[in-house]
Amino acid sequence: MSELIPAQQLRYSAQLLLPEMDERQQQRLFASKVLIIGLGGLGSVVASYLAGAGVGQLLLADDDRVSLSNLPRQLLYSSAEVGLHKVDCAKARLTAQNPEIAISTLPKRLTLAELQVLLPEVDLVLDCTDNASSRLAINQACYTQQVPLISGAATGWQGQLLALKPWLGQGCYQCLYPDWQDSPSCLQSGILGPLVGMVACQQALLALQYLLNIGVIPFGHLRYFDGLQGTSGQLQLQQDPDCPVCALNE
Amino acid sequence: MQIQFNQQPYTLSSPTTLAVFLASQQQLRAGIAVAINQQVIPRSHWDSQSLQEGDNIMLFTAIAGG
Ligand SMILES: [Zn+2]
Predict the structure, then answer these.
(1) Where are the transmembrane segments (chain A) (predicted)?
(2) pLDDT at residue B60 above 70?
(3) Region A32-236: CATH code
(4) What residues are neighbours of ligand 1 (ion), with CB under 5 Å?
(5) Given this structure, which CATH class describes domain B2-61?
(6) pLDDT at A185
(7) What ipTM was estimated for this complex?
(8) Mutating which of A240, A243, A248 best tests the B interface, going by the most B Cβ atoms within 10 A?
């Protein structure tokens, strides 16, 4: 691996000061490839922190276009971009933030079959989507392809964060919510920007920790937050022996 | 028997299972997860999981927003 050039030493100087970091660790981030699915309130913030930290390859997937009602919490977009594809606006903004990284875009809602093809290429999947069927498809593909998944969700005052290596028998998203149908979206239930940002920041932090192999990643646990009451906690998952994704296939 | 349900103290008059308790609270619905003492109880165990003195039961609703 080549050494960091002076401009890189300066760009990443704050994170390089951490005792867990050094140039080799920074090279590790450069060599990482992360799939971010969904570029709404979660994905905007997650993508910005990962790009900023120097994660070398970001794959951004979202079929949506920027709308005026996104702007209070989806910090990558501007009023002038209403109507444009989120992935294109996100790529432009993130490239301006950090021109050193490679960003690929997929302006579509990924199917299970497409996920199965894509996942072997990536080190980590970040689920930032806004619907149950995408979440369960991502969970299933991560199980099959054995790619770690960090899934964030925020609606109303509630935030949930799930870190999974579902092939390890620790339980999966499907075990947690076996009969999940589509839940009310942000537009139906309401959301305040910082609540979704709080979940996204945790998701980005865990992602960087995972890529750097530092700290404690709560794989097999659900973290929850109530932004109105200020409460939070962590639950341990258990595999459901009847789970059609992670148990019955074995 | 004293338990906690969603942070509120609750008295059970007779031994019961998680499934029966949730039904009595009109909480048997789709898209929920239940934890006892910070451990998620898989859906297929709800019928057999009996509640114990001091159990801390919490109900979580699936959320999909992002
Ligand atoms: Zn499962």
Answers:
(1) 34-60
(2) yes
(3) 3.40.50.720
(4) A 172, 174-175, 243, 245-246
(5) alpha beta
(6) 55
(7) 0.94
(8) A240
